């Protein structure tokens, strides 16, 4: 924490702009290389179309209204699954981290469930919930649940017992103790868990949409592969990168806000 | 709504811990009748159970034998009538010093009244200018004074102080001792004060309770934890140079195994 505070403590406006500028150097270079190898003909276009072709694919899809649709449905699935999974992760993580009974009762089972590779759930979810939205949102929720559950339960279990005792000595118990001591103490880990969960949500989204879907970016990937549209595949990948980064930045903002008093 | 000072009664209090290497008796047969408003200093070698004894009174721990009563009724965890300043400051790192002191306020204190009280207490312990700092930004001594202010915020009938001035430099320590005398005079409260400083004990307390370590080979197998109780003569504020106190000091140090003169 101290080391972080020293490195990132109160960045000036100029410093932040500089960091943003530096962060764009590598993407710009990649774009340039991409352009060069494709424009020079070193790599054939049917294997790697140039940035211009990908841009045209985007404009074309957007004009038909498909692009906005794919993006919107994917974002909606990720957010619903994330909210459900992270919420459950918080609740169950608190139960396991705060109560010995909860720990003994739940952690062995949850440990086993977590060991199941994500794709193994797909056939079952499709059988139970059909190919509709529920099966996808559920899969994403499973993906979001575990990072939150794991970090929250561990963080609550390791809250400084001396602080907890101080809280008790000053008349805090139960929910009050949770709100004054335990949750604030665990907050940095909780936020880190939420961040991981969001990344995991995108991962599970693509898994869900690749396998069974008629909309969304994962579907776009799959569909384009079958039609040999490398330009659209690249477009979907770039969109996933941008969307993932954007949502992560949102959590980053939340993190800075919540942890202001911590740093 | 200031609480009145309350009496504390310790009857045959004993505490034995179960440890991986078997049971470990730390306190045995402690009997102590503390009057309302009295200041008691607890001294003794480190590890003899001073902090453990305070924990019995704050009900953060339960005695294996015997009973602890405040104002005639048994103590309960988080008891509104008692307040502790722990040996470590134990401040919440994400809160400002002011917000840490506010933790000590009785629950449901009106907001404005609480803020005023916190400001008053921070001023009292000399931290008015540091109200918005976080614990990691202040010295150990400042943290300890914050912890004292937090305990005072509870306006307790019994104030439990575990080496509250241990981390302070010599000068601040003297100032804080005088502050405690002042606080005690203006808002009478019963005080149990653990200290390793015999002079401090004699300056502040009505009675000094000397505890002994049960693990000490010199301790008789059935002896209780209280080795001795010394009445300190005179009224507060005392004269630090009073020769009666100097003599008592030599006596107490001897009790603690520190002779003041090297005999020929
Ligand atoms: N929860 C506990 N479990 C086991 N031993 C303990 C526990 N709390 C205190 N002790 C032991 O009791 C002894 C007295 O501790 P303490 O009251 O902190 O001493 P003091 O405050 O006089 O220095 C120490 O040897 C300590 O190790
Ligand atoms: Mg101690």
Describe it:
The complex is a heterodimer of chains A (263) and B (264). With 263 residues, chain A is mainly α. Chain A has two domains: 1-43; 49-262, MetI-like (MetI-like fold, Orthogonal Bundle), CATH 1.10.3720. Chain A is built from twelve helices and no strands. The longest helix of chain A has 38 residues, at 174-211. Chain B is α/β, with parallel strands linked by helices and 264 residues long. Chain B folds into two domains: 1-16 and 25-81 and 156-264, 3-Layer(aba) Sandwich (Rossmann fold); 92-155, no CATH class. Chain B is 30% helix and 24% strand. Chain B has helices at residues 50-57, 97-102, 111-124, 140-153, 170-186, 198-204, 243-255; strands spanning 8-19, 22-34, 39-43, 65-70, 73-74, 82-85, 158-162, 190-194, 207-211, 226-231. In chain B, helix 3 crosses helix 4 (140-153) and helix 6 crosses helix 7. Chain B is globular, with a radius of gyration of 19 Å. The termini of chain B are far apart. The site of magnesium ion (MG) has 4 residues of chain B, from helix 1. Residues 17, 19, 24, 26, 44, 46-52 of chain B line the site of adenosine-5'-diphosphate.
List the helices and strands and how they pair.
The complex is a heterodimer of chains A (263) and B (264).
Chain A: H1 2-8, H2 13-23, H3 25-39, H4 51-63, H5 66-98, H6 100-114, H7 121-129, H8 133-157, H9 161-169, H10 174-211, H11 217-226, H12 230-258
Helix pairs in contact in A: 4-12, 5-6, 5-8, 5-10, 5-11, 7-8, 8-10, 9-10, 10-11, 10-12, 11-12
Chain B: E1 8-19, E2 22-34, E3 39-43, H1 50-57, E4 65-70, E5 73-74, E6 82-85, H2 97-102, H3 111-124, H4 140-153, E7 158-162, H5 170-186, E8 190-194, H6 198-204, E9 207-211, E10 226-231, H7 243-255
Parallel strand pairs in B: 3-8, 3-9, 6-7, 7-8
Antiparallel strand pairs in B: 1-2, 1-4, 4-5, 9-10
The complex binds adenosine-5'-diphosphate and magnesium ion.
Pfam families (chain B): ABC_tran
Domain ABC transporter (chain B): 8-238
Keywords (chain B): ATP-binding, Nucleotide-binding, Transport
């Amino acid at each position: 924490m101290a080391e972080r505070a020293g490195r990132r403590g109160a960045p000036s406006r100029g410093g932040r702009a500089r960091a943003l500028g530096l962060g764009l150097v590598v993407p710009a270079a990649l774009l340039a290389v991409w352009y060069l190898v494709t424009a020079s003909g070193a790599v054939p276009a049917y294997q790697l179309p140039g940035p211009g072709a990908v841009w045209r694919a985007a404009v074309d899809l957007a004009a038909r209204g498909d692009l906005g649709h794919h993006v919107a449905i994917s974002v909606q699935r990720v957010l619903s699954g994330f909210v459900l999974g992270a919420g459950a992760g918080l609740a169950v993580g608190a139960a396991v981290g705060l109560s010995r009974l909860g720990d003994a009762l739940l952690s062995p089972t949850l440990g086993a469930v977590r060991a199941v590779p994500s794709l193994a759930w797909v056939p079952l979810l499709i059988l139970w919930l059909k190919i509709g939205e529920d099966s996808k949102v559920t899969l994403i929720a499973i993906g979001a649940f575990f990072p939150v559950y794991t970090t929250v339960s561990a963080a609550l279990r390791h809250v400084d017992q001396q602080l907890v005792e101080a809280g008790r000595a000053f008349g805090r118990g139960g929910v009050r103790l949770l709100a004054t001591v335990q949750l604030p103490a665990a907050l940095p880990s909780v936020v880190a868990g939420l961040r991981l969960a969001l990344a995991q949500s995108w991962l599970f989204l693509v898994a869900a949409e690749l396998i069974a879907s008629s909309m969304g970016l994962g579907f776009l990937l799959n569909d384009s592969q079958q039609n040999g549209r490398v330009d659209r595949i690249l477009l979907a990948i770039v969109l996933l990168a941008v969307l993932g980064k954007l949502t992560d930045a949102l959590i980053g903002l939340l993190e800075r806000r919540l942890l202001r008093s911590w740093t | 709504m200031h609480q009145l000072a309350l009496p504390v009664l310790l009857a045959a209090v004993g505490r034995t811990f179960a440890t991986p290497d078997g049971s470990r008796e730390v306190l045995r047969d402690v009997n102590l009748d503390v009057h309302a408003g009295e200041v008691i200093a607890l001294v003794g070698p480190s590890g003899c159970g001073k902090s453990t004894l305070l924990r019995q009174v704050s009900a953060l721990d339960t005695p294996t034998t015997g009973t602890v009563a405040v104002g005639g009724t048994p103590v309960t965890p988080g008891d509104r009538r008692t307040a502790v300043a722990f040996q470590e400051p134990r401040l919440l790192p994400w809160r400002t010093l002011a917000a840490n002191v506010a933790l000590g306020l009785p629950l449901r204190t009106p907001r404005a009244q609480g803020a005023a009280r916190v400001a008053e207490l921070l001023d009292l312990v000399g931290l008015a200018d540091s109200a918005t700092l976080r614990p990691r930004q202040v010295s150990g001594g400042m943290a300890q004074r914050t912890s004292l202010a937090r305990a005072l915020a509870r306006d307790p009938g019994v104030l439990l102080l575990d080496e509250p001035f241990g981390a302070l430099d010599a000068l601040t320590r003297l100032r804080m001792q005088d502050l405690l005398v002042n606080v005690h005079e203006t808002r009478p409260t019963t005080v149990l004060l653990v200290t390793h400083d015999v002079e401090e004990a004699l300056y502040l307390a009505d009675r000094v309770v000397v505890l002994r370590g049960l693990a000490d080979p010199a301790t008789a197998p059935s002896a209780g934890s209280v080795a001795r109780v010394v009445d300190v003569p005179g009224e507060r504020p005392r004269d630090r140079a009073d020769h009666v106190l100097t003599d008592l000091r030599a006596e107490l140090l001897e009790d603690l195994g520190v002779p003041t003169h090297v005999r020929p």
